[in-house]
Amino acid sequence: MSHRLFRKKSVDQILLDTQKEGGTGLAKVLGVTDLVSLGIAAIVGAGIFSTIGLASYEGGPAVSLLFIFTAFACVFTALAYAQFASTVPVSGSAYTYAYVAFGELFAWIIGWALVLEYAVSNTVIAISWSQYFVSMLEGFGLHIPAWLSMAPGYAYDAVDKMNQHGMSSLTAIDQHGLAAFNSAPRIGGMPIIFDLPAGVITFLVTWLVYIGIKESQKASMIMVMIKVGIILAVIFGGIFYVKPENWTPFAPNGLQGVLGSVAAVFFAFIGFDSISTTAEECKNPQRDLPKAMIYCLLICTVLYVAITLVLTGMVNYTELNVKDPLAFVFKYVGFDHMAGVISVTSVIAITSALLVYQLAQPRIWMTMSRDGLLWKKFATIHPKYKTPSFATIVTGLVVAIPSLFFKMDFFVDLTSVGTFFAFILVCAGVLYMDYSGLSAKSKFKVPYINGKYLVGAGLIIAIVLIGIYGKDTLNEWKKLSILEIIEHKMLVIIFWLTWLGLGIYSFKMNFSLLPVIGILINLYLMTELGASNWIIFVIWLVLGLGVYFMYGYKHSKLNKSAAV
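Structure tokens predicted for Cationic amino acid transporter C-terminal domain-containing protein:
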């Protein structure tokens, strides 16, 4: 059985499968400009328009450096994705890559994790879109009832906070939640509260994705031009309101405050990998996908760093714990007209990110269905629109229903867990490709730097630096019991053991340095996420394994071919 769990698909077999059962039904219409547009649409979305405020509030102006560090991590991962995309130019993203490198069980796990990444990411984006949309309407004097524009959790939190600390303790968001609780219609004494705009926009975007990739790409291109324009306007307009004293202290909460924003900052970069799901719709995926991923990361990193410095320069970081930071800073300095323009364009900008994620998710399911791991219906290609029709409808439901009832905060960290997991496996997959000789088929390769001595030397240097500069951290560890270390520091232990293992194997097998760095950086960033998110992620994986062993293992095409 263990042999069957790790059965692999060859690159030739995957390419052959796309010629069968409607695999060629997807329209090849995307060029490198289209891919860059889709990538920017995915990356520059809810992250820059909402979570960037929370990140700045927690870490201060130094969060701009965290954006650079996170982009640095993403570059190594993007190179790994680019090599796989040039080798296996089909839909499926990391799922397909894992099938080639590690076998069926790992492919299922990564595919299941990607379901979580895209669905949860889009839920966050839909909720963020709703907040900006409601704010925009209020600017025009139109008001959606509070009970129709938020998750019930906000209302219940506001009531609890008022009961414990009184009305004076309520923030603006709390007051809005309390208004929703008091004004909501009731059934059996229970208030009816849900986020209607989030559900409606998800439905509309799903419909657009359903009717065609080219229509989706054209809409995305227009929205990208608008939102990049407004971001540049914020940067160049905000420069005149920057007060350098607001950048002091640069890291008010120290390194821990900056790293505490990892989830929010990393969420702002999630999306560059989503364009790899459109490989079958690219005119020349081996050439264009690698270029598009790198271009997207470079453009977005420059925009993020610039806008973070402008925001924290215009307003003290302590004022930025708001859901609409770009509009807020211009209201703060009295430029209400600009704030209004930002509110309108941010609605458009976030819509484009929602569109790309809704585009990516069905193509993951379609590819898993082709392999027999999901029901055949998920691989259905619409005869007229040439899109994975059934999978697109299911994606709409999976995103729309949670966005009606859940708070944004619940999903942000959870998204990052699944994404880090996928990124690590893709980087590790490149090491396997080098080892197995698959890299010979790659039209784009991660630049090779021999890590034979460098990986181990880096570990030794890191240990020495911790001994010199990390005495506070070491003292903190000494105070913890064994159970506390297991509960709170297990991921840190796994990180160091992984580095040790990679150092040993790099010495033995001459591992390429860049994928190793990608693995270590992503794993380190994972250690900064909360334990509760890991518990939910593990539960999600357990559920996924249940689906696999009840259906996927038996119906896998590789299983059927082995039985013949």
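The chain has a mean pLDDT of 78.
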